[in-house]
Specification:
Elements (H helix, E strand, L loop, with lengths): L1 H11 L20 E4 L10 H16 L3 E4 L6 H13 L4 E5 L4 H10 L4 E5 L20 E6 L1 H14 L4 E6 L4 H21 L6 E7 L7 H12 L4 E5 L3 H12 L2 E6 L9 E7 L1 H13 L7 E5 L6 E2 L12 H13 L22 E5 L1
Parallel strand pairs: 1-2, 1-3, 3-4, 4-5, 5-11, 6-7, 6-8, 7-13, 8-9, 9-10
Antiparallel strand pairs: 10-12
Helix pairs in contact: 2-9, 3-4, 5-6, 7-8
Length: 363
């Protein structure tokens, strides 16, 4: 009966836990590692799930109690309340996956100086866009970012080396991370085209930002028109807009390149995904804490040099591009022998990407 009451209370307060342990007195034990989900669920095949898997991997290896929390709604206050709950339950580390946590973590790092925060894909700030936001990363917080240009580069390189010549890029809002994906994609395609000795104009990239991250009929129509005009594969960096492009690809019998996480399970049209290795980086940050060298107080950009980005070769559906090809180009990225990929101006907009072979068609 006590267990039923405990579970009912957990549901009532709007949080969920993995492997909840109950003490001798019927009370939950304390949880040392915690994750608060953003707008998705713990099994969303995206940020939450990937970050959680990194946390669980370390926790199980070291036998550390762990738990995740669902906020009651998508708001800064709800996120902070979920963090409060995690700290009350004994969290030493709180993982916050996604830019929605930038403001909540900004305040939580001051509220709980004895707790460490791992903010994935974001930088803490106070959210005051009227007077200008204040960015501050305390010593108990690490801001984790990724080299999206390198992930995009790998996707574009692999597509051309695999034999695709009519490519597309559909981005959501033209924020720096999405822009870096797109610029890297073009540069990767260009690099492969030069390696293969292709003629100028033999590879084309249709390039477009939808202005949002929702699945819309307009995005599906755009993708369908590209496919019907001879397009082979579209790299989509548009949140739920990926679903719109995948639907168009399924109808046209064409291909898609996913983003952020391995999206091969979302549609048989997905040939690969430009990934941020969230599981690896969350694991690494937690391990650093327990090893006494938590990288707090700064932003760490994970790149190929530390295995922070990549393609999921074990689930990719390439025709010709193989592991040896991938390892060769990856080692070049990791060593820095590939020159600067994408550049942004001081407003976060893309500079002109110099290409000789690729034909860019902006729409």
């Amino acid at each position: 009966m006590k267990k039923i009451i405990v579970l009912a209370c957990i549901i009532a307060i709007g949080c969920a836990a993995n492997l909840i342990k109950v003490g001798a007195a019927g009370e939950p034990t304390r949880f040392e590692l915690a994750l608060v989900t953003d707008s998705g669920t713990i099994d969303d095949r995206s940020y939450n799930q990937a970050a959680w898997e990194g946390l669980v991997q370390y926790a199980r290896e070291k036998n550390i109690s762990h738990k995740y929390y669902y906020p009651s709604e998508m708001s800064d206050n709800a996120f902070l309340k979920a963090i409060d709950m995690a700290v009350r339950d004994g969290a030493k580390i709180v993982v916050a996956p996604g830019f929605l946590f930038e403001v909540p973590v900004f305040f939580a790092q001051d509220r709980y100086p004895g707790v460490n925060f791992i903010l994935v894909d974001g930088t803490p700030h106070n959210g005051d866009w009227h007077y200008g936001p204040v960015f501050r990363t305390r010593q108990n917080t690490v801001s984790v970012l990724y080299a999206e240009d390198q992930a995009g580069f790998l996707a574009g390189y692999a597509a051309v080396r695999d034999g695709y010549r009519k490519l597309g890029f559909v981005g959501g809002m033209a924020v720096p991370a999405v822009v870096r994906y797109g610029c890297g994609f073009v540069q990767g395609a260009e690099y492969a085209a030069q390696e293969l000795g292709l003629a100028a104009g033999s590879v084309a990239v249709n390039y477009h930002y939808t202005g949002g991250f929702s699945a819309t009929p307009e995005t599906q129509w755009l993708a369908a028109s590209w496919y019907n005009s001879g397009g082979d594969v579209i790299f989509v960096c548009g949140g739920a807009g990926c679903n719109s492009v995948m639907a168009a690809a399924e109808q046209a019998g064409k291909k898609v390149i996913g983003v952020d996480v391995d999206q091969s399970g979302e549609s048989p049209t997905v040939i690969t995904s430009a990934m941020k290795m969230l599981q690896t980086t969350v694991y690494a940050c937690i391990a650093a804490y327990y090893n006494g060298n938590f990288p707090g107080g700064r932003t760490h950009v994970f790149s190929a040099a530390d295995g922070g980005v990549g393609l999921p070769m074990s689930t990719s559906r390439f025709r010709n591009f193989n592991r040896a090809n991938y390892d060769a180009i990856y080692s070049k990225l990791a060593s820095g022998s590939v020159p600067g990929i994408s550049e942004l101006d001081d407003r976060g907009s893309p500079r002109v990407v110099p290409v000789k072979i690729i034909k860019i068609i902006e729409e």
